[in-house]
Amino acid sequence: MSPVAADRLRPEGLPDRLGGDETLVMGVLNVTPDSFSDGGEYADTPSAIAHGRALIAAGAAIVDVGGESTRPGAPRVDEDEELRRVLPVVEALSAEDVVVSVDTMRASVAAASVEAGALIVNDVSAGRADVDMGREAARLRTRAGTPPVFIAMHWRGHSDVMNELAVYEDVGPESAAELAERLDALREAGVEDRFLVADPGLGFSKTGEQNWRLLAEWDTIASHGLPILIGASRKRFVSSLGVDRDQATAAISGYSARQGAWAVRVHDVAPSLAAAKVGDMLRRSGR
To answer: Could you give the residue ranges of the DSSP H alpha helices within 23-170?
Structure first.
């Protein structure tokens, strides 16, 4: 059965309201001064919380809070600074019943954020950047008593070297095999499949051509048998099309929904929400 016809895969551990047969929209909330598209706009706690509320009002099902930029060339921030940026925002939004994801590569930040109310850990390194991440993710329990959902992305290295690592014979199978290794390592650390989500890592150690090729090979993206998150929003390969980057992102969101993605991660929620609804309808109608 093709991914288009198959039932959409979803992780366990999230509120029932996120359990329908629709692709979810995850809104990006960068609490950073140096992110590639909105650095500095929401770097202080009040403006970050306000933007998180705006993302939900626009239709986002999840708000992904990050305190460290992963744009190419970005320097790492220290642990204390990352915690200072994200924890007040995670706590405030979680207290308002917002489903919060924390975008971090540090086990300590993941643990503190889940304690503050986050239900999802979004690790772009899939546990490679911090050897304690897998064990910590398996140990953690959300306020609902379940492990957090863990999003594992294909990643080859930190921002200062990622572009140098975009060397493949065949990007689809190679990146899928490398992500499969990380998923196995997370399983060995105790993370259960029912809480795992796979992200192919668009824009990370991949050229523009490689990103498009990977997107076109959906069977490869879906080969892990896990729910899929697609994060293409405003990335260089999207912006290079010469059209509005949020509209182009929305087109990818619609395509991803048509294919059965669990969620799309975007900066501008409204156009991607509309596109995902169209993709969902086409997917259901094509069964």
So the answer is: 45-57, 79-95, 107-116, 133-139
Rounded to whole angstroms, how far apart are CA atoms 287 and 259? 12
| Helix 79-95 / helix 107-116 crossing angle, nearest 10 deg | 20
pLDDT at residue 38 in the model:
52
Distance CA 162, CA 160 (A): 6
Close Cβ partners of 157 (under 8 Å, ≥ 6 residues apart): 164, 165, 205
Question: In terms of DSSP bridges, do strands 229-230 and 149-153 run parallel, antiparallel, or are they unpaired?
Answer: unpaired
How many Å apart are CA 162 and CA 62, to the nearest integer? 27
pLDDT for residue 279 is more than 60: yes
Please state, in angstroms and rounded to a whole number, the distance separating the CA atoms of residues 262 and 246. 20
Q: Looking at the annotation, which residues are catalytic? A: 235, 265
Rounded-to-integer distance, Cα 26 and Cα 37, Å:
16
First to last CA, the chain: 11
Cα angle vertex 200, ends 264, 250, to 5°? 30
Task: Extract the tokens encoding 19.
Answer: 């359990």
Tens-digit pLDDT profile for residues 128-173: 999 999 999 999 999 999 999 999 999 887 777 777 787 889 999 9
Is residue 77 within 8 A of residue 101, CB to CB? The reply is no
Cβ contacts of 167 within 8 Å, gap of 6 or more: none
How far CA 78 is from CA of 36, 68, 81, 130, 282, in Å, comes to 19, 9, 6, 13, 45
Q: Strand 229-230 and strand 263-266: pairing?
A: parallel
